[in-house]
Records
---
Amino acid sequence: MPLRVQPVKMRADNTAWLFQDEATGATAFVDPADAAPAIAAVEAAGGRLDLILLTHHHDDHVGGALALKARTGAAILGNAADAHRLPPLDRPVQPGDRIPFGAAGAEVIDTPGHTRGHIAYFLADGPALACGDTLFSLGIGRLFEGTPEEMFESLGRFGGFPDATLVCCGHNYTASNARFALTVDPENADLVTRAAEVREAGARGELSVPSTLGQERATNPFLRAGTAEALGRLRREKDEFKG
Ligand code: ZN
Ligand code: FE
């Protein structure tokens, strides 16, 4: 695989991501909540950092960006439409842009719902999808600034990506998401198996990210919701869920 994909644990349950193109050594870091763990991960990977990719403006995704840039000289990229509430962007990007990185580059995907200006990055070399707080392993982000319709359309933009795509999401909420998913879809054998794997991983202190888009298509009730209305209903139930 020409792209090395590594989750970097931050704060209580954030997962930032380090992507390294094995052919050139080019390195990108997604959503540095804090600089110290990001710098440690970059140094362990050889010390080079070219790009800091931001998915959305929340502090637990951008808080370490400036200090990480100061240390590494990397360029900060984020959605031009949200530049007013992101750290200063060296390269404002827009949905549809292809950022040079590795052989195939990183494609910018429009993913409003969690926040208005949320974007995701698809790296065909992985393939890997850095999706921030849009799609989680067995869940989705809260709809702080968007509608169920917007989130439904955002998730639909991942529809053409291969099943093997690594889902590099912004939080490791898999265990609680699995408990909710089982209440929605208890007869889904793939989900039952996966929920057990997630519990075992948690007991060993391991992350249960990244998953793959194929796994999410088989087990994530929000991706399996056929309509925006059904997705909105699930999201409201999950907001109330105490599990
Ligand atoms: Zn967020
Ligand atoms: Fe977040």
Note: The chain has a mean pLDDT of 97.
---
Amino acid sequence: VTAALLSGREVAARLRARASEVLAECAAAGITVRLAIVVATADESAAWYVRSLRAATARLGIECEVTELSPSAMATEVSTVLEELSANALVHGIALQTPLPAGLSLAQTASAIDPAKDVDGSSALSLGRLLAGLPAFAPATAQAVLELLDFHGVGVSGRRAVVVGRSVVVGKPVAQLLLARDATVTVCHSRTPELAAVTREADVLVVAAGRPGLITADHVRPGAVVIDVGTNTTDDGSLTGDVDAASVGAVAGGLSPVPGGVGLVTTAQLLLNTVTAASRARLLAS
Ligand code: NAP
């Protein structure tokens, strides 16, 4: 393996340290910061993420409440919960987990979240503001990719970036953030012919497909930086990415591990967004 390990550990620690500072200011003002998570899926990797968020909020000192809905919940049921949480002054951040019940669109359902509490940047308004270059919370995972690149000194301006995956949670917002940093961005998806020929163009390759082992050495130009967003649960309950780390590690210049890469940073970013939302609410109220 020749690739530098682009670990998320220290990046996440820095984001948590910043979150701690803001949290202390909120505590001094008598505010208990609270994150509400809404889950309507039986998906195992979503459950894994929610468990890690619960643990991370507890460690930092943020209250966390999880509302579990049925994986077959109707759109109105999910929206009603989101509207109630939005109206609750004790809740500062709301994160709606994916996947959603069949037929529900994330951006549309999340539009029931008060934009000021949309700490995972899920609503159509937040996504639209991101596209327009206006201030908004970006989806935490997408932001985490940029934080990881920044921390490890990987510049993207003027470089070729390829994103595999076009979901509104990861692929599209990552592409948008890279574009905003002056990368030349190509987005691939399941209908992209000759995927390897396209991904080999990348100086920076971001993979968010949810397909274990999709990206092998053949897909990577020697020396390219590869960020693996995939979190797939294996039969033994462990996590694996979308990148075949053994073969890609021998050609890439840098590779983020799974676990220990983007996922760690995502959790820390969501905590930081939540305390930021609480702090803004406090300033607005004063
Ligand atoms: P998703 O909604 O299922 O989207 C997957 C995307 O990958 C789609 O755009 C799909 O194309 C594309 N794709 C699937 N198979 C492909 C193939 N063989 N070749 C090229 N493109 C392909 O998934 P998601 O929510 O974006 O999540 C992606 C992965 O990231 C999952 O493993 C998820 O668990 C992980 N994730 C990690 C974090 C974290 O914090 N680390 C957070 C969120 C998600 P089509 O659009 O054509 O179907």
Note: Residues 45, 98, 141, 164-167, 169-171, 188-192, 195, 208-211, 214, 229-232, 262-263, 266 surround NAP (CB under 6 Å).
